[in-house]
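Q: A small favour: would you put together sequence and structure tokens for a protein?
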Amino acid sequence: MKKIKLSPILLLLLLIGVPISIKAQEDSTLLTIDKAVDIALDKNGSIQVSHYEIERQKVLKSTALNIDKTNFDFSYGQINTVENDFGFTINQSFQFPTVYGKQSKLADAKVRNSELQLTVSENELKKEVKSVWLHLAYLHEREELLLYQDSIYDRFNDASKVRYETHEASFLEQANAEVQLMEIQLELDQNDADINIYKNKLQTLLNIDYVVDVVATKDLEKRVIEIRADTFELSDNPMLNYFLYQTALIEQEKAVQKSENLPEFRVGYFNISMIGYQEVDNKSRYFGSTDRFTGVSFGIDIPIWFKANTERVKATELEKMKAEAEANYYQTQLIGEFNRVVQEYRKLKSGIEYYEAKGLPQAVLILDDAQKSFEQGVINYVEFVHSVDAVLVIRYRYLQMLNEYNQSVIAVEYLIGR
């Protein structure tokens, strides 16, 4: 059986003599948040797809030097005389030499583009995994409080029944106690369902075939991040870098398109027999099938009708301008979102600091005073329950704010590419 690590609030509750039922994280592989991220980056399907795309683009780099097919022509028949001659020609065409260099640069740009797509996918995945992990940790912490509250209200319900049977309390008090107990049990069921949902989310993100859960923490931990006053850190945002790079990629595509207006070259070699008599140095000489006549040829293809390609270049230039506009628009949105998230982070950080400095210590004092008063007979169990309710309200609000705070930190980390 796995050992269960208890949080300070739960230990406090045990010390005051309240029985707690705890559900162990059985049949689950426990993961730290960093381990969960590492597994996801290794096994998630979207990341694997991005890696395959990078490898595909690297393989395609070798196609930058794409020389046309070599042409072989053969001829046989009465070319020179009534005798049948045999000949062949070999022709090869080439692009203008600078074209191959431009195609190579475009291939490099496509590799870089696929690498940037990978960083975008990794950043998205890290955000999702950390967000799900932290929310799952929050749900487990909330479960501890619900279990304690359930035990308190179970006793309160029993006490109300006794008080009602002895005519010390009204039916309304007894009915309220029973309804409150059922409400807590419903919340426990709902929370347990949420735990299973988020465990499934985490398992899906990690792309694994076994159940996982978060490592039991001493308390739901507060993530720490340093945020600078300016937006310089946004320069590491993967999506922004991807958008900015599109103009460079399109520029390389345009360079290749423009090179299509350059001339192409052809070289050839021919070899043929010319059976029969030929005049050589004023003398008649017989040439047979083994006597070969050879030569070379050279040609150039000049694009005269280049309007269509020129229009394609113009269209690509417009595409570049569109990419620049998209990058600028995204950067504006990113700065706005960054400022919003930072403001949200600072608001929640202020709330957390209040609870840590005043709210939680005050809750401990209330609980301690209520426990002592109850043990000394100053207050009854009903009054004790009301005091515990006040403590739990503070604790629930703190937990909810702590989860929202951690989520805001994840949002900041996502925007600055951490």
Q: What stands out?
A: DSSP finds eight helices and eight strands in the chain.
